[in-house]
Amino acid sequence: MDLKNVLVLPYIASTYSVTRVPASGTTSLSGSLANTHDGSDSTYYRYYTQHGGDGSITSTFYTEYTWTYPVTIRRVRGVFQTGTYGGNYKNGDMSWNVQLKIGGVWTTVSSTSFHSGAEGSNTWAYFSRTLDTLGTWANVTGCRGYSWGTAYSYEGDRQQLLDQYIYEIGAYREKNVEILKVKTPTTIIGLGRNDLSAGDKVRIMKNGTVYGLPLVQTGDPSASPVRVYDGSVVKAIAQADA
C-alpha cells in the first residue's frame, strides 16, 4: 500500500502551544513550526525553559495541524528529543505522543515515556524517540506532536532546565494511485484508486483486481469533477495523487 503524508497538503492550519510550571525563569523558542512537517528529521521546532533554585520545572510543548475535510489515516510518525539539566539528586520524566483529531476529539494513537535518574546531574542529558505506528483511524481532521517533561534537583548547580525538540510529525493516508482518466471540456484528469475495503461504494476492476475509488466531499482539494451519490449525499471521486 502506498501512503501519502497529508501534512504536505496546502490547506493545513497550524499552531503550537507551550505551558510550564513554575511560570518564572527563562524561556525561548527556536527553529520553526514549518520545520516539523518539512520531511526532514534534522530540522526542528524547539522550546527551552529554565527554573532557578532548588525544586522542579515541568513543561508541555506541542505542535498541531488541522485540515477541513476528514480523511482516513493509516500511519502516524513523530520524531522527538528532550534534554534535561539539573543540580544534585536529579530526577527527570518525559513522554512523547502523536495524537489525531478523530471526530473532533484529540486522541493519543502512539506514545512512549522515559524516566531518567541521575543522568545529567550538573550537566545535560538528552533522550531521543521516534514513534512510527500503523493503523486505521477514520474521520481525522488533525495531527499533533506532543512533548511533556519534568526535571527535579536540589543543591549543586541549583537550577533545572528542559530542552524539547519536535523534529517531524506525519499523518499518512492511502495514496490515490491513478487507475483511469476522464476528459473535461478543458483538461484530462486522472482518477485515483485505493486497495479495496468493505466500505467502498464505487469499485473498478483492472487486470483481474478489484479496487475502490475513494469518495471525498465536493469541496475537498482532491475532488475531481466526477460526482457520485453515495446513498446519502453527493460526493466526488478523488483525483489521483501526483
Feature tags:
single chain, 242 residues, mainly beta, Jelly Rolls, nine-stranded antiparallel sheet, four-stranded antiparallel sheet, 0% helix, 67% strand
CATH C-level class of the largest domain: Mainly Beta
Q: Quote the CATH topology of the largest domain.
A: Jelly Rolls
CATH-level-2 architecture of the largest domain: Sandwich
pLDDT average, as an integer?
Answer: 91
Structure classification: mainly beta
**What is the strand tally?**
16
Query: Approximately how much beta-strand content do the residues carry?
Result: over 45%
Looking at the structure, what is the overall shape?
elongated
SSE order = EEEEEEEEEEEEEEEE
Distance between the first and last residues' Cα: 16 Å
Fraction of residues in helix: under 10%
Total helical segments: 0
User: How many distinct domains?
Assistant: 2
Radius of gyration: 22 Å
Descriptive overview:
- There is one protein chain.
- This protein is mainly β and 242 residues long.
- The protein has two domains: 3-173, Jelly Rolls (Sandwich), CATH 2.60.120; 176-238, no CATH class.
- It is 0% helix and 67% strand.
- The chain has strands at 3-5, 13-21, 27-31, 45-52, 55-85, 91-102, 105-116, 124-153, 159-174, 177-183, 188-195, 203-206, 209-212, 215-216, 223-229, 234-238.
- Strands 1, 2, 3, 4, 5, 6, 7, 8 and 9 form a nine-stranded antiparallel sheet that branches. It has a four-stranded antiparallel sheet with strand order 10-11-13-12, with no helix packed on it.
- A hairpin with a 2-residue loop joins strand 12 and strand 13.
- The protein is elongated.
- The model has no long low-confidence stretch (mean pLDDT 91).
